[in-house]
Specification:
Elements (H helix, E strand, L loop, with lengths): L3 E7 L8 E5 L4 E5 L3 E6 L5 E7 L1 E2 L8 E3 L4 E4 L5 E5 L2 E4 L13 E5 L2 E5 L2 E2 L2 E2 L3 E5 L4 E4 L11 E2 L2 E4 L3 E5 L2 E3 L7 E3 L2 E6 L4 E8 L9 E2 L4 E5 L6 E5 L4 E5 L3 H7 L6 E3 L2 E8 L2 E8 H6 L3 E6 L1 E2 L2 H21 L7 E4 L2 E4 L2 E3 L3 H15 L4 E2 H7 L7 H22 L7 E5 L7 E5 L5
């Protein structure tokens, strides 16, 4: 086995890269730091091409950001998108750090940034959002069909040109958020048809781990229990497992995400304040592996699928019968709010505001502006500032409900008095009561 080792960087002080990105078209490797971006040439054995000190248009903490491509960065906590222009970084989005899709998948398809899943407000997500460059904001992707995955976390995923595959992961217990359950289902999403397909039940539980794409059908990952390397062929429904080696251990612990280019596998080690680049040919790497097992990824028995469908029909029918009066309505049980059996988490002043408006709206009474403004009263602030904070709070609460309820309608309505246009009243949208 021939292992090629290139020394990359030697630091005078401890300064680790935040993220990396490889542009395969130009063979340029990018490193992101707190205050600079470095470019290296893969063709010239990682020769440093430039090191640019970043100038900020606004105060930013880049530790929360990652590369989308060589020109864009995205915030791990929310919707912020930054654009790199020369030695400057500018924020270009009109969104905010909603923290509703933490840990979501993020990828580019046809020059559009997509996200899937993630976690926020005590539940996992099972929908796509995409960044609309025309309005510089995030929108929901409408899908078709009648199959949709469970709300999952820590699932293994693989993206090809037109599909995304989701395997395993965990679901949150419906009655206790501290309890999680293993998910054995596997799914495929087709971007051309915008439909999900249930592939089958996993033979062994799988959870998120490092993914190294090889081609449209095949990728490397790792067995979390024993550290062995796994080779998936997604279209052949096949997993090959190989014993771990010193090289696979280095790849698994790579400081930056490994990638394959021109039939070579590239990975990184950070030792003694030095970032080292390693490369090995795929041919040499695979020839060094010793197989221990080979198995199907999932069971695709038609009887199993029929059983799942019948069970689904029975469950759906039971839910319709029991919850006919509460579907797509906000309900209050023991001081807690629910929508379609999912708890709506409210905190602080937003809970006080919503409580007042909801309770009055249930009695067909609208709440006057003075009552809501008093919640935000602060003797150190003038009326204009207090009123602005009140309006911002209600707008954010409406934005939050739009995401949680998956709607484009405002939940809290603002109406002018027919007698005095200066007088404002608030109520809950009757479609959700």
């Amino acid at each position: 086995m021939k292992l090629i080792l290139f020394f990359l960087l030697s630091f005078q002080s401890i300064e680790k890269p935040i993220d990396s990105y490889f542009d395969s078209s130009d063979e340029i490797f990018y490193l992101l730091y707190d205050e600079k971006i470095e470019k290296y040439s893969l063709e010239s054995e990682y020769k440093l091409l430039s090191s640019i000190e970043i100038k900020y248009s606004i105060n930013l903490n880049l530790k929360n950001f990652k590369f989308v491509d060589q020109h864009l960065l995205s915030n791990n906590l929310g919707g912020e998108i930054l654009e790199i222009r020369g030695d400057s970084i500018f924020r270009i989005d009109n969104s905010y750090n909603h923290k509703l899709q933490l840990g979501s998948l993020e990828f580019i398809r046809n020059d559009t940034i997509f996200r899937y899943g993630g976690y926020g407000f005590f539940e996992n997500r099972n929908f796509f959002t995409y960044y609309n460059r025309k309005i510089n904001s995030w929108e929901f992707l409408n899908i078709k069909g009648d199959i949709i995955p469970e709300e999952l976390s820590n699932f293994l995923y693989y993206k090809t040109k037109d599909n995304i595959y989701i395997l395993g992961g965990f679901t949150i217990d419906k009655f206790n958020n501290d309890i999680i359950h293993k998910n054995y289902n596997s799914y495929k999403f087709d971007f051309k048809t915008k439909k999900w397909k249930h592939l089958g039940k996993l033979n062994n539980h799988i959870e998120r781990n490092l993914i190294i794409p090889l081609d449209n059908d095949t990728f490397f990952s790792f067995n979390k229990q024993n550290g062995n390397i796994l080779k998936f062929n997604i279209n052949s429904n096949l997993i090959e497992e190989f014993y771990k080696t010193p090289t696979t251990k280095k790849i698994q612990s790579s400081f930056l995400k490994p990638f394959v280019h021109n039939d070579n596998l590239h990975f990184f080690n950070y030792e003694n304040n030095q970032l080292n680049f390693n490369s090995i040919s795929i041919k040499d790497f695979e020839s060094s592996l010793r197989k221990t097992d080979s198995r199907n990824i999932y069971k695709n028995s038609y009887l199993f699928l029929i059983g799942i469908c019948l069970s689904f029909i029975v469950i759906v029918f039971s839910i319709i019968v029991i919850t006919k009066k509460t579907i797509n309505k906000i309900i209050k049980i023991n001081g807690l709010y629910f929508y379609n059996f999912k708890r709506l988490s409210l905190r602080g002043k937003e809970e006080v505001v919503f409580n007042i408006i909801f309770n009055q709206s249930r009695n067909n009474v609208k709440v006057d502006n003075r009552t809501i403004t008093e919640i935000f009263y602060d003797e150190n602030l003038n009326y204009t500032t207090i009123n602005r904070r009140k309006n911002e709070s209600i707008n954010k609460l409406n934005d939050k409900f739009k995401i949680l309820l998956k709607t484009n309608k405002d939940i809290i309505l603002r109406e002018q008095s027919e007698i005095d246009k200066r007088e404002i009243f608030y109520s809950i949208n009757s479609k959700f009561l």
